[in-house]
């Protein structure tokens, strides 16, 4: 097979993450809007929302499992086939959620199966990011790893935009009854077509040259996870803590704010979804800017700048979101997602640079997914509980604390790459 062009590689690393995060985010939207009504109807509205957000968090528990599972094969047999398998697992779970009957039809089995499929989504996504990041950075020139490592980082923002536009269109075309009965299922079902596109692009790729060289030289490990934990445990912990604020910013601004805005502030669902479509442009703008800067001034300065600003944003959460005024709410969402892009884009190169090639898929993936547990898994549910106990101010303090932890972790991580092996 001929070596693909860097443009093809960049597109392949982008399209897979865009599709998988689209799948992931449509569940986040559904959890904020309708999952509680369909699968937990016996509860009062507040408990419905909490149960739905807890099923949302379940996938984050599964993601490290997926990182370990797919990381093992990614470090043993290669990036290409492992990436295709992760996309199939994610896509299949998403498609089946769209077909799953609700509590009214299947009783308690409906939420049980929903949790299993949500776990499957997490397994699939757990294997996606690291492989996509390695696909981009292991092909890229040394002085442009930050730039090419950006393309899988663009996937989440584009996937979120597609998910939001899909739900916005359904909200405008359908009434509340139609949306609750079947409309919310449409984004899950049509995801199958997107997965086919992603698989086609992925199968046209060759293995990355760095991995192929290590494979031919027999420099791989029989059990990559054992070597990873024994020799690179500190890098995993610091990488996970560094990632936490990225996730926290994103899911606070989207899932929690969407739930709070539509239920507590009584803002119409199509209106708030429209605001999120505007706000996500902040992440789209910040991602290439941060990646470009990371190649010139270094990954760590860019990350620390974004994390310090996130600390300050936490103190602005309550007055801006609590104002109920559209301008302040949109501005808060835009800034939060802009800072998410700043703290996220350099990670496409920064995390893989912390690990040698033989354990890179496992190491980068596990750090990334553990960061999801720390920063996002139950962040919307915790924020919901904090609102009920102490108000929005405590949600802002929560954001600031997570940002401080991530900044300390980045400060402790080496800036010199180990990507050349």
Short description:
The protein has 20 helices and no strands.
Description:
This protein is mainly α and 421 residues long. The protein contains 20 helices and no strands. Helix 1 crosses helix 13 and helix 7 crosses helix 18. The protein is globular and about 60 Å long. The two termini are 24 Å apart.
Write the layout of secondary structure elements.
Elements: H1 6-33, H2 35-39, H3 45-76, H4 79-99, H5 103-106, H6 109-126, H7 128-137, H8 145-148, H9 150-173, H10 176-181, H11 186-203, H12 209-216, H13 224-263, H14 269-297, H15 299-321, H16 326-344, H17 347-350, H18 360-377, H19 379-390, H20 392-412
Helix pairs in contact: 1-3, 1-4, 1-6, 1-7, 1-9, 1-11, 1-13, 3-4, 3-6, 3-13, 3-18, 3-19, 4-6, 4-7, 4-11, 7-9, 7-18, 9-14, 13-14, 13-16, 13-18, 13-19, 13-20, 14-15, 14-16, 15-16, 15-20, 19-20
Number of domains as seen in the coordinates: 1
User: If helices are DSSP runs of H or I spanning 4 or more residues, what is the number of helices?
Assistant: 20
CATH fold-level topology: Growth Hormone, Chain: A
Overall geometric form: globular
Radius of gyration in whole Å, from Cα? 20 Å
Tell me about the biggest sheet? none
Q: Into which percent range does the helicity of residues fall?
A: over 70%
- What's the CATH class label? Mainly Alpha
């Amino acid at each position: 097979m001929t070596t693909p062009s860097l443009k093809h590689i960049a597109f392949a690393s982008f399209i897979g993450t865009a599709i998988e995060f689209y799948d992931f985010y449509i569940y986040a939207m559904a959890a904020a809007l309708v999952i509680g009504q369909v699968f937990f109807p016996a509860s009062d509205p507040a408990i419905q929302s909490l149960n739905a957000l807890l099923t949302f968090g379940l996938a984050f528990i599964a993601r490290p499992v997926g990182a370990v599972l797919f990381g093992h094969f990614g470090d043993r047999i290669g990036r290409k086939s492992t990436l295709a398998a992760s996309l199939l697992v994610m896509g299949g779970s998403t498609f089946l959620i769209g077909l799953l009957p609700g509590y009214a039809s299947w009783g308690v089995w409906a939420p049980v199966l929903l949790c299993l499929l949500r776990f499957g989504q997490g397994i699939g996504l757990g294997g996606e990011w690291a492989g996509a990041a390695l696909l981009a950075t292991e092909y890229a020139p040394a002085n442009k790893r930050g730039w090419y490592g950006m393309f899988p980082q663009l996937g989440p923002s584009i996937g979120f935009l597609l998910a939001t536009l899909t739900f916005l269109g359904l909200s405008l075309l359908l009434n509340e009854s139609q949306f609750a009965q079947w409309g919310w299922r449409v984004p899950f079902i049509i995801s199958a077509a997107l997965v086919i596109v992603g698989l086609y692009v992925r199968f046209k790729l060759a293995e990355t040259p760095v991995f192929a060289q290590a494979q031919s030289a027999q420099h791989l490990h029989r059990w990559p996870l054992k070597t990873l934990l024994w020799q690179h445990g500190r890098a995993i912990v610091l990488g996970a803590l560094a990632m936490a604020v990225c996730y926290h910013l994103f899911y606070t601004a989207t899932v929690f704010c969407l739930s709070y805005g539509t239920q507590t502030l009584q803002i119409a669902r199509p209106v708030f979804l429209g605001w999120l479509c505007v706000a996500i442009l902040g992440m789209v703008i910040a991602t290439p800017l941060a990646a470009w800067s990371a190649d010139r001034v270094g990954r760590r300065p860019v990350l620390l700048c974004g994390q310090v600003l996130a600390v300050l944003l936490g103190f602005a959460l309550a007055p801006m979101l609590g104002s109920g005024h559209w301008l302040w709410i949109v501005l808060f969402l835009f800034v939060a997602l802009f800072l998410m892009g700043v703290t996220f884009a350099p990670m496409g190169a920064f995390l893989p640079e912390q690990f040698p090639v033989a354990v890179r898929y496992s190491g980068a993936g596990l750090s990334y997914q553990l960061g999801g547990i720390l920063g996002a898994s139950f962040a919307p549910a915790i924020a919901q509980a904090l609102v009920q106990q102490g108000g929005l101010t405590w949600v802002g303090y929560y954001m600031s604390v997570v940002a401080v932890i991530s900044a300390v972790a980045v400060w402790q991580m080496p800036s010199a790459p180990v990507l050349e092996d």
